Amino acid sequence: MRGYGRGVRAATIAGLLADPTRLKVVAALALGAGTLEEVAEATGLPLRDVALAARRLGRAGLVRRDRHELELLTDRFGAAARAAAEAAPPPEPLSDDPAEDAVLSAFVRDGRLVSIPAQQTKRRIVLEHLVRVFDVGIRYPEREVNALLAVWHPDTAALRRYLVDEGLLTREAGLYWRSGGWVDV
Fold first, then answer.
1. Which of 2, 45, 176, 180 could be a cystine partner for 168, CB 3.0 to 4.6 Å?
2. Is the torsion defined by CA of 117, 118, 122, 124 positive or negative?
3. What does the DSSP 8-state code read for residue 181?
4. What is the rounded CA–CA span in Å between residue 161 and residue 32?
5. What 3-state DSSP class applies to 179?
């Protein structure tokens, strides 16, 4: 396996598996096929296509091939995933305050609220974070409030109620406006 002593990169694996033939070959090997013929039978692919895919996967260090015998080197997948995770930059903090950032990191993923905290102090931190989508001095109809909150979490009624209860939004005559929380200037 010349050049692959350090492992296979996750991007290389993703590129290899983007090809439907190679993906089928890997799947068949993962499910127990051990020869070119068994892979061809399991996938319905021509033996020639299986051999070409196995050769390419072997050159990348994912498959060990000994004539017609094949072995999927499953440890390479895990090693590539771990290396990619270690090389990924740390996520941007959601708050300058480490305690707030810890709470926000537990409840906010990829710009979405994964769950509404049950504990009031944690919920307050999360609500102060998401109230920032509302501009100061603007009055919002309920449907617009729901649209802005739906980006965060599907339970817009609960979020709306919590924001009002915590004094972060005020409601009157079907209109809402921001009335609390930190304002970035």
1. 180
2. positive
3. S
4. 54
5. coil
Tell me, yes or no, whether 162 and 102 share the same domain: yes
**Same domain, yes or no: 14 and 71:** yes
The rounded distance, in Å, linking the Cα atoms of 43 and 73 is: 19
107 and 77, same structural domain? no
Helix (H) or strand (E) holding 166: none
How many domains does the chain divide into? 2
Cβ(117)–Cβ(123) under 8 Å? Answer: yes
CATH code where residue 152 lies: 1.10.10
Q: Which residue has the tokens 């096929």?
A: 33
**Residue closest to 42 by CA, chosen among 60, 59, 27, 56:** 27
Q: Give the pLDDT of residue 181.
A: 67
Q: Which of 84, 114, 145 is the last residue of a domain?
A: 84
**In the predicted structure, residue 117 carries a pLDDT above the cut 90:** yes
Asked if residue 157 is part of any domain, the answer here is yes
Is the same domain home to 77 and 118?
Answer: no
Q: What is the mean pLDDT of the chain?
A: 89
Contact between 122 and 132 (Cβ < 8 Å) = no
**One-letter identity of residue 29:** L
What confidence score (pLDDT) does residue 111 get?
83
The gap between the terminal CA atoms of the chain, to the nearest Å, is 57
Mean pLDDT of 56-85: 90
Contact 164, 157 (CB under 8 A): no
